[in-house]
């Protein structure tokens, strides 16, 4: 005897009741529609069984709540928010789900007139999470599932003229949930559009097209399969390009079907770089639909995947449906903004991770030009946890469930030229059900490539896909026939969680070097923070902030875009790393450059170079070069015609080369920059001047304080602690604490696996200094203070023996030389350190920052492709990046000098060698503690970090660590810089002055 009866939503072998066969989402359709978006009556319950009697009848429901559709009910005050990456929120007992199964009954009255009633009515749900039943006027009309795919029901027979009741009961948990364990918030409800379609009797039900190419790769072959509702139906078709007819004809269906094939000579081909679209109009006497056609061919040639015979490289991102206020409800406008931004940032590919997107998303990709990996709504990651990963994946009783998810995706989306691969899902191990899904996809559409990362052996896929593969392994894949000869793609890499990822350049270099490697997709586009206003604060919540447990916390804050759509520094970096034109200087020359055209289809004719000669702040010469010609994948040489000029003393000169689009495109204005690089010019000359002299310095000691002073400056030291205490001018303290050594930075997400060792074994945040000696020497015009210190962290045998030499000049400058010698008296030591540097404090009134170094944005050792040298200014606050989950941020590399000022006076700091800089209004400790930006406490001073070196970012929250060259090892170091107070506005002038001593 069976212990329990399967409920409808626990029957994995029941695909649906009454759902129509999946079909193309037409681009345009003459059939009338009524949108059912908007207000619905809503009843929330803890289990479907609690439904009130007769809930599906029209007379009930008036007392219920009201909810707007589309929406997810967790963001409308029902149920609760919960985020997990891998874990199911119930015992693994497939196909059964908890009896406590949050359920929403939606009800809407729709009025239909006589004319409407003369046609058929299709009720279309674009997306309901996770399974649902539908009743029309009290009668059961159907049942469906698969959250991220549409479901259509023919409800003609259940309707009447006048008012009609539509009731939908949505189940949060269903057998389908076992296949929907993607890394994201658990959200439920009718979250995509709902509509009624008035379908004429003689209508076109489906039209599957393929814009193929003949062997010349020039002529298009239009292939269309039309399905009509009537068994025999006549009609016409017309193919147009930009309003001009390219071909046309008539058709007659037999048994409701007809196949058309037509040669289109010299077709304008579709690629992501040239998104040329044709429009096919198919008409019957009472119905007209339009679908768009892109002529292009995807195939594998000599073990590489090609578009129109050209090997392409994917510079992609992973895209989830997400909105900070609406969860998984995404509007056309938002999708369009995403696609535009991707195009503007040189991205050419997107993976719909890990489910099909809204219909309109693909239209946008077709139109603007992005290669798409479309992925079936399928992930059962939680099974890995119980060490039976292939439990349902290899269980034939689930076969239909797996196949259904792929087949419906293909049937809906196959007309989109942008889709180049079908992916069968994500993180679901491998087994017989994927083999069946693969077969079903190939039978439906053999014109695209098959992808599934979980086919680890690349047994049935066309591409060998891996995720977060380390560089070493990637190189092996590239150089040896690992898993055969199939082309490789990295479906996920570069984990954009928090600050990072760094090290992208190394990946791009590999993709560009090895033909087998055809690019990858950054994880991921968006931070999935949930907009929250609470207690006067506005912030974004992540896992755990709703008391949700278990959770993966801020693992959902891992995008290139912040929730408010601010591009993160990593997006700027990615843009530059993947820039399709690479500019390198030809060895041994100053002005000769090689351009490599990484476009797969565009020649450089559409681009021009804007160059300028920059002397730190000033631009001396500039010009354009616009006769570029390089063919795709080819190089050309350019000579930048700057003329000799007389350099100013003590000034660095750079040549900036920017590659721009000549014409406006659909996504950017004319002149849009696709790449900006900078090359130092070797024309610096120095003039050293005598240091000016001030009045004689007085030196005195009182209560362990050593004061050195004249009318221009007051400098104080603590003799016992060996610190520079302050630098003041006219009773105002500018420097409120001198250098103290540090090896710590507020943990970034990409250091999460180092954190415990760093902070609980090596105690890098717990350092202290021991004064070894304190001496001073007066000379004419200067006083030299020498301090010896031992720096170390709690219970560590490693540390630094430091010699600080301070020279206070009568002219008001304080020169600091620091020599650090690495010490190890035992054995234990960290493999590397976050940084080696010093921290100082400035008067909190000094909020205007200016620096000469890399900028304008944040940059780090392994993420500075987008940072170029220049003199930049900003407020101290604006120098930081407000990461949703607070962490180290706002760093600038290669800083030669900086100042913080109050508009009147500026504390200027000139470095003798390039140093790293952070300026902030908070301490590292407060940053480390904070769980949200509003937790960060404002410090009493401006916190100034100067780094001898700071480790890179890496991508180790998921993926590669910092590469060796970007790890700061325990090592000897020196730092030298000079502090002085100058008039605000005089920073640049003062910074240039170099002295003889
Ligand atoms: C991958 C997974 C993604 C996401 C990522 C971590 O393993 O496919 O969905 O979870 O890791 O952010
Ligand atoms: Mg997963």
TrEMBL record:
GO terms for molecular function: beta-galactosidase activity; carbohydrate binding. InterPro entries: B-gal_small/dom_5, Bact_Beta-galactosidase, Beta-gal/glucu_dom_sf, Gal_mutarotase_sf_dom, Galactose-bd-like_sf, GH, GH-type_carb-bd, Glyco_hydro_2. Residues 707-980 form the Beta galactosidase small chain/ domain. It catalyses: Hydrolysis of terminal non-reducing beta-D-galactose residues in beta-D-galactosides. Keywords: Glycosidase, Hydrolase. GO terms for biological process: lactose catabolic process. It holds the Pfam family LacZ_4. Signal peptide: none annotated. It comes from the Bacteria. GO terms for cellular component: beta-galactosidase complex. PANTHER family: BETA-GALACTOSIDASE. This is Beta-galactosidase. It comes from Anaerocolumna aminovalerica.
């Amino acid at each position: 005897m069976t212990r329990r009866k399967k409920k409808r939503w626990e029957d994995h072998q029941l695909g649906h009741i009454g759902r129509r066969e999946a079909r193309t989402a037409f681009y345009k359709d003459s059939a009338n529609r009524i949108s059912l978006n908007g207000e619905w009556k809503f009843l929330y319950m803890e289990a479907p069984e609690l439904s009130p009697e007769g809930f599906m009848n029209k007379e009930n429901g008036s007392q219920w709540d009201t909810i707007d559709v589309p929406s997810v009910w967790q963001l409308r005050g029902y149920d609760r928010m919960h985020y997990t990456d891998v874990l199911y929120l119930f015992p693994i007992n497939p196909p059964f789900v908890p009896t406590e199964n949050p359920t929403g009954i939606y009800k809407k009255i729709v009025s239909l007139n006589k004319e409407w009633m003369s046609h058929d009515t299709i009720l279309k749900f674009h997306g309901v999470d996770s399974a649902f039943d539908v009743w029309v006027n009290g009668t059961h009309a159907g049942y469906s599932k698969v959250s991220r795919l549409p479901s259509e029901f023919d409800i003609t027979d259940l309707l009447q003229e006048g008012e009609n009741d539509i009731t939908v009961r949505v189940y949060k948990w269903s057998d389908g949930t076992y296949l929907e364990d993607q890394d994201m918030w658990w959200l439920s409800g009718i979250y995509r559009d709902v509509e009624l379609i008035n379908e004429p009797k003689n209508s076109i039900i489906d039209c599957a097209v393929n814009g193929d190419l003949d062997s010349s790769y020039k002529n298009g072959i239009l292939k269309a399969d039309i399905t009509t509702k009537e068994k025999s139906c006549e009609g016409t078709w017309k193919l147009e390009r930009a309003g001009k007819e390219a071909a046309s004809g008539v058709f007659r269906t037999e048994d409701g079907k007809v196949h058309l094939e037509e040669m289109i000579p010299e077709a304008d081909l579709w690629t992501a770089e040239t998104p040329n679209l044709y429009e096919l109009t198919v008409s019957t006497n009472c119905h007209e639909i339009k679908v768009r056609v892109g002529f292009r061919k995807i195939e594998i040639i000599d073990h590489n995947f090609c578009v129109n015979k050209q090997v392409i490289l994917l510079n992609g991102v992973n895209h989830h449906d997400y909105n900070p206020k609406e969860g998984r409800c995404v509007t056309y406008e938002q999708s369009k903004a995403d696609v535009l931004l991707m195009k503007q940032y040189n991205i050419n590919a997107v993976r719909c991770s890990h489910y099909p997107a809204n219909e309109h998303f693909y239209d946008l990709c077709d139109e603007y030009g992005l290669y798409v990996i479309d992925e079936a709504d399928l992930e059962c990651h939680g099974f890995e946890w119980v060490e039976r990963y292939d439990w349902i994946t290899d269980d034939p009783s689930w076969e239909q469930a797996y196949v259904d998810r792929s087949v419906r995706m293909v049937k809906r989306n196959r007309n989109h030229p942008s889709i180049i691969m079908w992916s069968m899902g994500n993180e679901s191990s491998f087994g017989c059900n994927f083999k069946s899904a693969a077969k079903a996809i190939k039978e439906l559409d053999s014109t695209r490539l098959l992808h599934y990362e979980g086919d680890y052996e690349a047994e049935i896929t066309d591409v060998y896909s891996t995720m977060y593969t380390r560089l070493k392994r990637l190189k092996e894949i590239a150089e040896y026939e690992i898993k055969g000869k199939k082309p490789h793609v990295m479906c996920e890499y570069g984990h954009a969680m928090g600050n990072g990822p760094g090290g992208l350049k190394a990946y791009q270099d590999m993709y560009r070097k090895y033909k087998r490697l055809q690019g990858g997709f950054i994880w991921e586009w968006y931070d999935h923070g949930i907009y929250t206003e609470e207690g006067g604060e506005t912030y974004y919540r992540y896992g755990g902030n709703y008391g949700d447990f278990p959770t993966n916390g801020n693992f959902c804050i891992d995008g290139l875009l912040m929730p408010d759509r601010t591009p993160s520094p990593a997006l700027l970096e990615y843009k530059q790393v993947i820039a399709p034109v690479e500019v390198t200087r030809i060895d041994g020359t100053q002005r000769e450059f090689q351009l490599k055209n990484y476009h797969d289809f565009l020649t450089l004719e559409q681009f021009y170079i804007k160059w300028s000669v920059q002397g730190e702040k000033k631009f001396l010469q500039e010009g354009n070069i616009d006769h570029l010609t390089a063919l795709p994948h080819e190089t050309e040489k350019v000579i930048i015609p700057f003329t000799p000029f007389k350099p100013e003393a003590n000034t660095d000169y750079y040549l900036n080369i920017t590659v721009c689009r000549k014409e406006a495109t659909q996504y950017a204005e004319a002149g849009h920059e696709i790449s900006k690089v900078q090359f130092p010019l070797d024309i610096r000359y120095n003039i050293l001047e005598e240091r000016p002299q001030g009045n004689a310095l007085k030196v005195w000691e009182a209560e362990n304080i050593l004061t050195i002073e004249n009318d221009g400056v007051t400098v104080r030291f603590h003799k016992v602690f060996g610190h520079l205490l302050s630098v003041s001018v006219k009773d105002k303290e500018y420097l409120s604490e001198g250098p103290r050594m540090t090896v710590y930075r507020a943990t970034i997400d990409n250091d999460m696996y180092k954190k415990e060792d760093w902070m609980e074994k090596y105690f890098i945040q717990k350092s202290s200094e021991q004064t070894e000696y304190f001496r001073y020497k007066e000379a004419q015009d200067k006083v030299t203070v020498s301090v010896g210190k031992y720096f170390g962290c709690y219970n560590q045998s490693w540390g630094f023996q430091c010699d600080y030499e301070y020279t206070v000049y009568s002219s008001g400058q304080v020169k600091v030389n620091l020599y650090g010698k690495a010490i190890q008296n035992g054995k234990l030591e960290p493999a590397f350190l976050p940084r080696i540097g010093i921290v100082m404090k400035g008067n909190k009134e000094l909020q205007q920052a200016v620096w000469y170094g890399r900028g304008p944005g944040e940059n780090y050792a392994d993420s500075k492709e987008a940072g170029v040298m220049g003199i930049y200014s900003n407020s101290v606050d604006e120098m930081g990046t407000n990461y949703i989950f607070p962490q180290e941020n706002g760093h600038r590399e290669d800083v030669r000098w900086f100042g913080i000022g109050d508009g009147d006076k500026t504390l200027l700091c000139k470095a003798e060698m390039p140093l790293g800089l952070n300026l902030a209004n908070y301490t590292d400790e407060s940053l480390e503690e904070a769980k949200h930006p509003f937790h960060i406490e404002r410090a009493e001073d401006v916190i100034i970090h100067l780094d001898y070196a700071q480790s890179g970012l890496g991508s180790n929250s998921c993926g590669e660590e910092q590469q060796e060259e970007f790890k700061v090892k325990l090592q000897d170091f020196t730092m030298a810089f000079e502090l002085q107070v100058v008039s605000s506005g005089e920073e640049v002038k003062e910074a240039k002055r170099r002295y003889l001593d």
